[in-house]
Structure to design on (746 residues):
């Protein structure tokens, strides 16, 4: 029997819909809800899951879902709990399959709290001990596989601090079932929402309330206060007035479950004709048009998502191939990219071999259709043959083995520029995450073109220079990537790799997509970078003005200031190139996976002179004795420009950083013991800089915010001296002298 019968709309009880999706329906057991291959994975963030469930509990509508009755032979992916990681095809004798075209994110979010499969990592929790956010019925929390202790209370999408995660790990050591971190809540009584809802359905309201009361009396709360990392009962210490609030929250949740039980949801039929991906009657294909229209009221499907979806629809095996490549170990360099980015990279590299095809780093839906179904002036059979060949090229690019595959190119790139015992100037594992998709595709293209087949030292340094410069000084990375592909395409076969990378650098600079590099001597002579002395008599600290271009400055000075500002990165304290400058130390840090996945990193970007000494000043009140007294006239917060500069930041193992706390440089390594000297070397701090760091430390560690003119001047000089020394190390060790001659700038 057709699901929609004679109507294009059907209304179901919400509970029946969720039972259908969970494979637990009795009334509609002849139907199975699946995901068409054009669907993407679950992308909702914790706050979206929480908001949806709060809407359900409060009895609010959540919109219409769209379904398409799937024909025999159509590929699909099962929902979680139905071997959802395996692609399948509709069998002729199979029960009626309903493809969920629009509403996947909402449905999967609802299933988290309805019938959580054993293998599902997402969990939704009710915290009865914590007051709900404004406008919410109860406090809901989310945990995931990568974040088993949850997220912040004030921002459900933000990670817990490293300290909070470490505390939770220690408290739950030896246990297999975790609960959310309280994250500032005075009392926290958490229970799994799926378990609560199942118990409510089985027990009835009053028995369910008694069950919850009993569970909360023995519930344990994570305690990370006063250096104690432990689980302890929460209920006995809770005042009676707060227990009464808990009782109200239990009542509210029961009413919310009643709202869900009474809710209905409209289901809208989508005509299968919209899945005709080869329809060439319109510039905009039907499937693209469909997603554009339905996306106006949902999570938008990007061009990249659409392209990956259609590739999966045409070649279902691509789904498993990409997922396998994305999770490959131990190298896992492919984890630098999302599954969607991997598919886009396969398409881009495959298109390099297609005659007359323009390079597109981020093709639109319409671009994609013209690439896969090219117009042919000859017979339709020729057009079809060309289309099938191009599809096969993309599929072959994603094969798990072979010399013309992403797998091979990724391994080639890692072997070529990665840090190892035989080449310690390479890029450490933890830094690969910062290469980002445009540069990764460039490196893959070099591997595809055969430029990385030779392990010559000069060639390694050529690619290393390009990568390091790109991370720090390329301003328009997508544009630079397109320029690079064009430069490689036009390069003479005899062009050496060092010459080619120099050509790429020059082309990017000429097109204003990157900043020209300058030698240490040019910087030192042009800006007096190591002096840091203002001519003003009533101020010491200089901020952004050190990069400001004066109308009377010559072009060279303007370019140098722009270049050096990108080196300081005064807008952030995250400095990726420190991972390379401290590569011997960084390579020793414990890590289980390649960066690029949503995993915590084992390091912090740590201020050498901690922020608590110089940051968070409001400028209100008497500035006597504070760092603000020593600002040069007309400067705006120069202490932030100095404090966050690369000269005041190091990469350090997170536990070492936490142990050091707010200790000044003098306290960290001022005694010059053997341990301190090792820490200096690991931190890329030269021994002759120590007097400056000691001079900018407080006389008394307990009076860290007390400043005088001499301390302020020492702070500025310490930062400037180390920033310049770090740049000189980068320039010399990566052999940037080969780019010494300035590129021609239009």
């Amino acid at each position: 029997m057709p699901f929609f019968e004679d109507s294009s709309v059907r209304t179901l009880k919400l509970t029946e819909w969720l039972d259908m999706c969970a494979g637990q329906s009795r009334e509609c057991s002849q139907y199975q809800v699946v995901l068409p291959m054009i669907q993407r994975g679950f992308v909702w963030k914790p706050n979206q899951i929480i908001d949806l469930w709060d809407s359900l509990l409060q009895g609010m509508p959540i919109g219409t879902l769209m379904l398409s009755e799937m024909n025999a032979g159509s590929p699909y992916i099962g929902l979680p709990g139905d071997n959802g990681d395996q692609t399948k095809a509709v069998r002729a004798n199979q029960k009626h399959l309903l493809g969920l075209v629009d509403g996947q994110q909402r449905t999967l979010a609802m299933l988290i709290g309805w019938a959580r499969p054993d293998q599902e990592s997402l969990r939704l929790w009710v915290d009865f001990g914590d007051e709900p956010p404004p406008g919410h019925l109860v406090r809901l929390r989310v945990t995931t596989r990568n974040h088993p202790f949850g997220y912040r209370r004030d921002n459900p999408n933000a990670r817990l601090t490293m300290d909070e995660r470490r505390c939770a790990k220690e408290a739950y050591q030896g246990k297999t079932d975790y609960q959310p971190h309280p994250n500032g809540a005075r009392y926290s009584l958490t229970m799994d929402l799926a378990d609560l809802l199942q118990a409510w359905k089985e027990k009835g309201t009053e028995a369910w309330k008694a069950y919850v009361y009993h569970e909360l009396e023995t519930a344990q709360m994570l305690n990370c206060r006063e250096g104690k990392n432990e689980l302890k009962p929460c209920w006995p210490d809770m005042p009676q007035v707060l227990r009464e609030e808990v009782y109200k929250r239990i009542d509210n949740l029961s009413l919310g479950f009643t709202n869900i039980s009474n809710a209905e949801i409209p289901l809208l039929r989508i005509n299968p004709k919209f899945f005709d991906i080869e329809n060439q009657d319109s510039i905009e294909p039907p499937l693209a048009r469909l997603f554009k229209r339905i996306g106006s009221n949902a999570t938008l499907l990007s061009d990249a998502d659409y392209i990956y979806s259609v590739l999966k629809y045409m070649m279902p095996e691509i789904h498993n191939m990409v997922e396998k490549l994305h999770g490959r170990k131990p190298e896992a360099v492919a984890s630098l990219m999302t599954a969607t980015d991997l598919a886009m990279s396969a398409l881009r590299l495959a298109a390099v071999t297609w005659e007359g095809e323009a390079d597109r780093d981020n093709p639109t839906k319409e671009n994609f259709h013209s690439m896969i179904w090219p117009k042919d002036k000859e017979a339709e059979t020729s057009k079809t043959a060309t289309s099938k060949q191009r599809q096969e090229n993309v599929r072959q690019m994603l094969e798990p083995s072979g010399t013309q595959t992403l797998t091979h190119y990724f391994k080639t790139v890692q072997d070529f520029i990665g840090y190892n015992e035989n080449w310690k100037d390479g890029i450490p594992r933890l830094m690969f995450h910062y290469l980002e998709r445009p540069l990764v595709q460039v490196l893959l293209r070099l591997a595809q073109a055969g430029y990385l087949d030779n392990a010559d030292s000069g060639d390694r340094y050529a690619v290393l220079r390009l990568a390091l410069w790109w991370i720090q000084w390329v301003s328009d990375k997508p544009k630079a990537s397109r320029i690079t592909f064009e430069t490689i395409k036009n390069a003479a076969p005899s062009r050496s790799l060092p010459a080619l990378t120099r050509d790429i650098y020059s082309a990017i600079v000429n097109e204003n997509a990157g900043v020209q590099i300058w030698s240490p001597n040019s910087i030192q002579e042009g800006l007096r970078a190591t002096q840091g002395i203002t001519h003003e008599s009533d101020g010491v600290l200089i901020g952004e003005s050190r990069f400001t271009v004066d109308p009377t400055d010559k072009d060279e000075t303007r370019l140098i200031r722009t270049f050096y500002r990108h080196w300081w990165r005064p807008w952030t304290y995250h400095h990726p190139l420190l991972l390379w400058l401290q590569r011997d130390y960084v390579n020793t840090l414990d890590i289980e996976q390649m960066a690029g996945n949503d995993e915590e990193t084992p390091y912090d970007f740590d201020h050498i002179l901690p922020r608590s000494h110089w940051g968070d000043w409001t400028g209100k009140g008497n500035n006597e004795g504070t760092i603000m007294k020593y600002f040069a006239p007309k400067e705006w917060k120069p202490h932030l420009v100095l404090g966050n500069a690369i000269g005041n930041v190091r990469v350090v193992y997170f536990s070492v950083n936490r142990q050091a706390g707010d200790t000044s440089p003098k306290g960290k390594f001022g005694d010059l013991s053997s341990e301190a000297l090792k820490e200096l070397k690991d931190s890329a701090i030269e021994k002759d800089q120590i007097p400056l760091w000691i001079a900018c430390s407080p006389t008394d560690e307990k009076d860290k915010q007390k400043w005088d003119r001499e301390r302020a001047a020492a702070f500025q000089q310490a930062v400037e001296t180390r920033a310049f020394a770090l740049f000189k190390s980068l320039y010399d060790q990566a052999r940037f002298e080969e780019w010494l001659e300035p590129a021609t700038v239009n």
Summary: The first strand starts at residue 9 and ends at 13. The radius of gyration is 30 Å.
